[in-house]
Amino acid sequence: MLRFLTAGESHGPGLVAIVEGLPSGLQVEAKGIAHELARRRLGLGRGARMRIELDELEILAGVRHGFTLGSPVAVIVRNTEWPRWQQEMSPEPVDSAARSPLTKPRPGHADLAGMLKYNTKDARDILERASARETAARTVVGYLAKQLLEVVGVSVISHVVAIGDVWSESLTPPTPGDLEMVDASPVRCFDPVAATSMVKAIEGAKGARDTIGGVVEVLAYGLPAGVGSHVHWDRRLDARLAAALMSIHAIKGVEVGDGFTSAGRPGSVAHDEIFYDDAFYRNTNRAGGTEGGMTIGGPLRVRAAMKPISTVLKGLQTVDVESKEAVPAFYERSDTCAVPAAGVVAEQMVAVVLAQEIQRQFGGDTVDDLIAAVERYRERLDRF
After folding, report:
1. What are the Cα distances from residue 174, in Å, to 45, 182, 200?
2. Distance from CA of residue 21 to its chain's centroid?
């Protein structure tokens, strides 16, 4: 089953993703990875770094002539700014006089908690790995997971449903065929009316030297019923998706389907009633496509709430860890809004979880074996 590790710091030489457990025969191309990395840079409100980072990548292992070998896949995404940071981020010892410790931790970041945990008074020891730049490596993993899902007829798409207090009121979610249209929106919103107001909200936050958060929705199409499990807490698909989404930087809330809204509904209208006409179906999708920790055969729908980015030009109040005096937090260049990009990362993490569960259920050391197993299962469901 697919598992992965990432390594690297924000301003280090590069980020590395190592992915184990992919079957042999899966098509993998550097240009496909590059496309996903470019999507991660989309969206109004991104900072200057998005224009600087070119995401130069190299497939180091596990792929031959465009197809996986069944061995671990390793990919490096090089940091094009590394020459400017070689002294500051050198793995070799440097003269202490050449160092510039960051002693004013930023609220909302991992800075202070990490400094206390690892007994360092330089926030850079923490922030470099805690940076959302790490999601570039996860995007590589997400691409590989999507390739696996694609061969068994499953597609994953994301879109923005809220920026600040501006919400899309559209009841029509995008489908895989709408992805190009979603990505063309400056805020990756499928609702053009809401998108216009979202743009104004981001520009307003930028003018106020502030940041703004929002909510993204991820949808998966083509999943058969029964993916996931009800028998153990850590096998329930809802739980695995929530954990994966909450692992993304700045995500502070997750719901499956109408999770929070349904909490205020009476039971008689909170659930998706079951009907039959040559096959089982539902007229609603309030549960988000899962019941009892398993898929029910319709679209999967999950949402993730992203807090406003913590690095604020106004300089939030903090305490210098050396002097213990009240000071403004230091400013590391940042974005006004990264919600559109967070949607792309959320898409990748959902794809990873779904690929893992598909592999857990159907196995297969080769892509052909996996495809055959899924097809047999779908045929059995059709006969039920």
Report:
1. 23, 8, 23
2. 20
pTM, full prediction: 0.95
Q: What is the dihedral of CA 214, 220, 221, 225, to 10 degrees?
A: -130
| 276, β-bridge pairs | 280
Distance of CA 189 to the CA centre of its chain: 16
Of residues 93, 128, 122, 146, the one with CA closest to residue 14: 128
How many C-beta neighbours within 10 Å does residue 338 have?
27
* CA–CA separation, 27 and 19 (whole Å): 15
Helical H runs in the chain?
30-40, 49-52, 82-85, 111-118, 124-130, 135-150, 179-184, 192-207, 237-246, 259-262, 267-270, 339-362, 367-383
Task: Give me the residue label for tokens 């360092």.
Answer: 120
* Amino acid at site 240: R
Q: What is the pLDDT of residues 232-291, one digit of tens each?
A: 999 999 999 999 999 999 999 999 999 999 999 999 999 999 999 999 999 999 999 999
- Number of Cβ within 10 Å of residue 214's Cβ equals 29
Could you write out the DSSP letters of every residue in 219-261?
EEESPPTT-B-SSSGGG-HHHHHHHHHHTSTTEEEEEETTHHH
pLDDT in tens, 85-142: 999 999 998 887 778 899 999 999 999 999 999 999 999 999 999 999 999 999 999 9
CA angle 27, 30, 185 (to 5 degrees): 100
Q: What is the distance between the alpha carbons of residues 25 and 31, in angstroms, rounded to a whole number?
A: 18
State residue 161 phi and psi, 5-degree precision.
-110, -15
Looking at the chain, how many residues does it have? 384
Q: How many CB atoms lie within 10 A of CB 228?
A: 24
Amino acid letter for position 5: L
Q: Which two tokens mark 284?
A: 């609603």
Is the dihedral angle over the CA atoms 126, 127, 128, 132 positive or is it negative? Answer: positive
